[in-house]
Write a structure and sequence with these properties.
The chain contains 13 helices and 20 strands. By secondary structure, it is an alpha/beta fold. The protein starts with 9 loop residues before the first strand and ends with a strand.
Amino acid sequence: MSASYAEICLLIDGEWISAKDRTSSPVVNPATGEVIGQVPHATRADLQRAIESTARGFKVWRNTPAYERAKILRKASALLRERSESIAQKLTMEQGKPLFEARYELNSSADYFEWFAEEGRRVYGRLVPSRNIAVQQMVKKEPIGPVAAFAPWNFPAITPSRKIGAALAAGCSIIIKPGEECPATAVEIARALQDAGLPNGVLSILFGEPSEISEFLIQSPVIRKVSFTGSVPVGRHLSAMAGRALKPITLELGGHAPVIVCKDADLDKTAQILAAGKFRGTGQICLSPTRFLVERSVYEEFLKLFVRYTQEMKIGNGMDPDTKVGPLSNERRIKAIGEMVADAKAKGARIMTGGERVPGPGLFWQPTILADVAPDALVMHEEPFGPIAVVLPFDTLDEAIEEANRLPYGLAAYGFTESTRSAIRLGNELEAGMIGINHTQMIVCELPFGGIKDSGQGSEGGAEGIQSYLTTKFVSQIC
C-alpha cells in the first residue's frame, strides 16, 4: 500500500469508516499494477444508516439560508484549490491520467462549487398577477429532497463535484457512490466540504457492490431524486427502477462522438487539436471524438497529420511530467480495445499507428488510428471508450451528417470548417446535446453538460444544472 495515497473511508452521518474489519476491494495503480489502497464496502446496515442520516441532514440543510449554503460551498472550493496538488497526485495514482490533466480537473471541480454557490443564491420564484385583487399568487422553488448519485471512475473529481455542488446549492442532502477504482478523489472532496462546515448527514459517501447500493437507495422512500453517469445498459436499468418509484433521474450515458472535417478546415491545426482531444484521458471520456469523417479530397493529407501528432504523444506513467497519454484504468478496457482492433483489422481496416498493448507493467495501449474501417466493424457501432480513432472519407456534407447521426448515441459531436454556412448546418443538424465547432473543450462549469437519445436525459452544469434538484410549489393566498 502506498504511503502517499489516502486512507479510503465511507462517510456516514459525519463519521469516517475505514476498511478495517470489513469487506474491501483493492485500489490498483493502473500505471504500475501496485495495490495502493483498500476500498471499504458498505453493509446493508451502513446503507440504512446513510438513508436515516440523509433524511435528518435534509431537514437541517433545506432550512439553511441559501446565503449560508453558498459560503460553505465557496469555502470548500477554496480548500480544494489549496489542496489541489496533493489531491491531483492521488487522482493520477488511482486513475492513471497525466498529472497536468488531474490538476486541470481539480481546478474545474473547484469551479463547479463556486458556480453552484452563486446559482443557489439565485433560485428565484415569482409572483403571478391574480384575477382577484384579494388573492396573492406565489410560485416557489424548493429543494426536491435527498438525492442518490452514482459517479464513474473516468472523471473522479469533476463528475462527483457537478452532482454534489448542484444538490447542495439547491438545498438537498446527497448520498453519492463514486467508482471503486478511483475512490480517493471523492473522499478528499468530501473532506473539503466537511472542513468548510457542511453539517453531518448532508453528504454521505458509499462504496461497495453497485447493484446492491443502487437498488437499496433508489427503492428507499427517503430518496426523491437520482443522478447517474455511466454506461447505457446500467442507465436503462436504473431509469426503470426510478420510474417504478416515480422518481426523476438525470442520466449522462455513453457516446460515440462523430467529427466532421471539411476540406476548408485548417488541417494542421485541426489534426493537432483532434489528436490532443482524442487521446485526452486515454480516450476514456464519454464525449471523446471517435468517428472522424474527413472530406475525401483532404482525407490522406489529414491522416498523415493526425498520425504525426498522435505519434508525438508520449505514453507513460501519469506522474511523469512529459507523459501525454496514460494507462487505461482497468483490465476490462484492455480486453475490449484489443477485441475491437482485431475485429476491424480482420475486416480490412488499415492500422495507421498503434494497435497493440504496450509490453511491461501497467495497462498501457498504444494510441491507435484505424483507416478505411468496414461499416460492420464492431468499433463502428459500440463505444470504444479508449485510445482508438476511426477515420473515414466522405464526399458530401449530407453524407457526413447522415453517418454522424446514424448511431443511437447523442452526447457530443464536432465539426471543423472555415465556412460559416457549414458551421451553421452542423450546429443545426448534428444530433447531440453538445456540439463543438473548431474545438473540443466543452467541460466548463457555466455550460450545460448532457446528451440526447441513448446518451441520456437532463443536463449537469450551467444554469440548467441546479434545476433538476428543485421542485415547484404554487401558493395561492387570500390577503
